Amino acid sequence: MVSAPTAAPPAPRKPGVGSAIGWSYVLSGGRIGSTVLVTFVLAKLLGPSEFGVVAMATVFITIAQTILQQGLVSAIVQRDKLTSEHLDAAFGVMVISGFVVGGAAAALSPVWALVNREPQLTTVCLALSPLVLMQALTIVPEAVLRRELAFKSVAVRTLSASVVSGVVGVVLALLGAGVWALVAQSLVNAFVGLVVLWTVCPWRPSRRPRLGAVRDLWKFSMHSANAGLGSMLSSKADLIFTGLFFGPVATGIYRLAARLPDMLVDVTVRSLQQVALPSLSRLQNDRPAFIRHLTTLQHLGAITGLPLLGVLVAGSGPLVGFLGPQWAGTEVPLALLCLYGALNAYGVLLGPALQAIGQPAKLAVILWTRGLLGVGVFAGVGTLLHDSTAARQATAIALAAIGMQIVMNAASVWVTVSRAVGGSIPRFLAPTLPAVLAGGVAAAVPLLFDAASVSIEPPLLALFVYCAVAAILSGALLWVLDRRLRTLVRKKLGGRLSWLPLSHPRTGRHEA
């Protein structure tokens, strides 16, 4: 006689969505802060070629990790009724898949090196292949923590891994390890994260997997895994084709230029993405509340992300000057990829929204369309600019990415907000307009200094001054224009901000 499935033990007290968002920002903020510092130091010590080789290898490993990561995680987080049998089944599948996919990645490493015409990729990919198994061992416990909105525990794991791996990478770079400093950083990050995760997660596998439990998760996870593969292709096609057509130097320039805006999007909008799926899933049967919450999350992402991306544009020139002549020409793709990041901020939350209402198939169609479009566009750019300089090649890829993002964002917002959820697109976008203006003002700060004929040296001082002025101007403009922001701050801090001018900028009336 088959025993009835045992309900997974609930957490004694679930954190609220507000607490989860706060810890999600701590999670991403601490990780990005440490990673930015480490990236600057490593870029100063190493060069574009080392960054490019590791970026090309990391893309290969990411393909394998994506096959594992996307499907069951979303199924665990989104599922209304989750039992211990579901978790045990998912973990068993992940362990087996980790060995199989990791072994396949190691075996195919020479093929990836041959395709990219870069012999060093074989050994680098082989060295990074254990990341696949380590990823498989983290998927279920991390999904459990995210389902319970336990982002404080996730933050402990992520921050610990970032700090320890950053120290290891910098020390090895100082010792002259070159590309292997970056390889060791990735491996140590994954291993420390794995150990800390299993320390902070209370869940443990307790029995052999049941096939019935696997089937319960299979339908949703297959659609979600399909979407995950499409997401990987759409988000990595630029890097893949930069490596295939242009080699490690252009790839290194593009990767550094893309990584800094990516980090800002991570700490702002993707921090909300981590909360979006579990919090929106709770509202999947109340569409008016669902669209209101999605609009609130998008507004939060815009006011935190767009001004910061504008500040990064302002500091792009001095930053590249500080990193050294080996990175000359990176400032243009860096500024362009900040614009790409700003556009991306409007697409990050749409995927979790479709998953939360049980429509991952639509997400898969959007992502695969974008990915296949990217294959054609980036292959065309690679063919046309094969003999150009590395900086021009990276710039061309960035421009192509921006054009694609505009087209696909428009389609994604229409499908998700208007068709799937039944909301109003103007009402969804309107609250973010003050953030757009604030980001634009921040990005224009170097033009103000040029118009005033003010030159600041050395580059590190110029970086500080440009970014400080950009942050002050964009922050002040955002505060004046964004009523939602002022209301949010007043609600969070209460009477402690009673002395601040909270009146409406046009009417002068105090806001209720």
TrEMBL record:
Alphabetical list of InterPro entries matching this protein: Poly_Biosynth_Transport (IPR050833)
Signal sequence, start to end: none
Main location: membrane
Localization, UniProt: Cell membrane
Cellular component terms (Gene Ontology): plasma membrane
Keyword Metal-binding appears in the UniProt entry: no
Pfam families reported in the protein's UniProt record: Polysacc_synt_3
Membrane-spanning segments: 20-42, 54-77, 89-115, 121-145, 154-174, 180-201, 300-320, 332-351, 363-385, 397-416, 428-449, 461-481
Keywords: Cell membrane, Membrane, Transmembrane, Transmembrane helix
Membrane-protein topology: Multi-pass membrane protein
Family: Belongs to the polysaccharide synthase family.
Name assigned to this protein: Polysaccharide transporter, PST family
Source species of the chain: Asanoa ishikariensis
Lineage of the organism: Bacteria, Bacillati, Actinomycetota, Actinomycetes, Micromonosporales
